## 1
Amino acid sequence: MDRREALASFGAITMAALADAAIAEEPMHDHEHHMHSAPKNQSLIDAASDCVQKGQACVAHCNTLLRDGDKDMAACQATAMQTIAICSALQQLANLNSPHLAKVAAAAADICKACEDECRKHDKKHQTCKDCGDSCAACYKQCKALAA
């Protein structure tokens, strides 16, 4: 690249940056944002999100125990995996305020209750199971309230 090309490139880059800066300073009259409130189902979104997070930790913990030969954790792992699946969908549908949310919440309530019951069998011995069970109980309550 010779000197003339370098100066031309620099000039073009400078002009593009100035144009971007000018556009950024102009107010957007056709698309103003106002303070938006939290989503309609924020408590359900939070509960489902927590269930996914605690369920993932429970599955990882169960995997370790199963590898070490503790076959008692197979049912706990299976219910936690189902909970992760349904609560992920629940969270997404709640964020979208889907018309199908109440139906999915009813199914999620059943799955969360099953996971809570299974985790309670191990919660004295494993903190991860206690955390998952507590999270499932909270999500179950949110789901039942919505599905009612």
Note: The domain at 42-147 is CATH 1.20.1270.360 (Substrate Binding Domain Of Dnak; Chain:A; Domain 2).
## 2
Amino acid sequence: MADAAWVGGAEWAPRSILRTGHRPFTFDCEIVRVDPPHEVAWRGGGLGTTGTHVYRFLPHADGCLVQSDEVFEGLLVPVMRPLVRWYWGVHLRAFRDWCAARG
């Protein structure tokens, strides 16, 4: 999500709009829940599919455990599932490595 951008409302506030996606596709998502520093959730979709993505930041002996959950609805879900699982695995491992490099 290197090109993520706010397109409406206050940043990290319920009902604000965040443009996210996986190149070449982008989606406008509505922030549906914010509970700093514990959780953020947004809902959006495209290509006949809608989804809700939740990030939870859980206490952990080494600092913080990031939990990512997604729920999708729509005709393309069976086709998208393997790609989405692969993408978020790569994304979260890169985030872990970025955090570890900064102590």
Note: The two ends are 23 Å apart (CA to CA).
## 3
Amino acid sequence: MHISVRGIVEKDDGIILIHRIKPREDGTLRDYFVVPGGKQEEGESNLETLNREIEEELGITVDVKEKLIEYDDQAYNDSIQIFYICTHKDGIIGTGNGPEMTNKNEYKGTFEPVVVKYEELKNVNLVPEAIKDLLVERYEAIKNEKKL
């Protein structure tokens, strides 16, 4: 089992996600979105992993606001995924130079950073589904607070 650390980066009334279109072995395409982040390396803290992965995948730096959830994903990919709420601090989205962005031989398909508006989250194929549901609930709660 390994630990993955992911950043829910808030920007422009939405969050930055990685849009993945990946070929399956049967020739069909899997079209989905993921929260940027990845596997913790030996000796790294959660925040070190988060900052490294966000820089590699998005090309930006973030301010970490809070830990949202620790999600047990052992049934799917034998990992614990830790999600943090962040805001975009500096840098240009899409300038990441991590291996998934530059090594197209090893990492098949597309990795495209996009901002998905909160109100559109429920309409995208965001995995894991439990995180999508949590983010939609969070957005609804924030929206209702603003109406009061």
Note: Helices lie at 46-58, 74-77, 99-102, 129-147.
